[in-house]
């Protein structure tokens, strides 16, 4: 999965991404999913999520984006300047792709190589 910030604003620093990873791991656990890999940059994040077929992808994405936005706003009030008008951190769109045939090691390597801002 890939989520981008609203208007591709450069919002996140390393501390934001570390906290976001914790938040998203908790959300995945609530859905009985596993966040296998997480990484990101200042304006987007990459997630590798293993989830069962009973989980509706749209519900999982909605919770990941909604909970992370709300918690980050509460814990890091300085992020408010990046929330344009309607208090939205994330763009309304997202990318997901199925990777059932790809080796997990290749996917992990790709996500790990994404640059984290300091």
From TrEMBL:
Domain Transposase IS200-like: residue ranges: 2-114
UniProt xrefs under SMART domains: Y1_Tnp
Lineage: superkingdom: Bacteria
Stored InterPro entries: Transposase_17, Transposase_17_sf
Listed NCBIfam families: transpos_IS200 (NF033573)
Protein name: IS200/IS605 family transposase
Annotated organism of origin: Actinomadura livida
Protein encoded by which gene: tnpA
């Amino acid at each position: 999965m890939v989520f981008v910030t609203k208007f591709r604003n450069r919002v996140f620093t390393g501390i934001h991404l570390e906290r976001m990873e914790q938040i998203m791991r908790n959300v995945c656990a609530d859905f009985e999913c596993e966040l296998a890999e997480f990484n990101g940059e200042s304006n987007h994040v990459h997630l590798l999520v293993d989830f069962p077929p009973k989980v509706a992808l749209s519900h999982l994405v909605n919770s990941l984006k909604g909970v992370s936005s709300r918690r980050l706003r509460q814990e890091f009030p300085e992020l408010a300047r990046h929330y344009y008008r309607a208090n939205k951190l994330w763009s309304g769109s997202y990318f997901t792709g199925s990777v059932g045939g790809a080796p997990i090691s290749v996917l992990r390597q790709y996500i790990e190589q994404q640059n984290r801002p300091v």
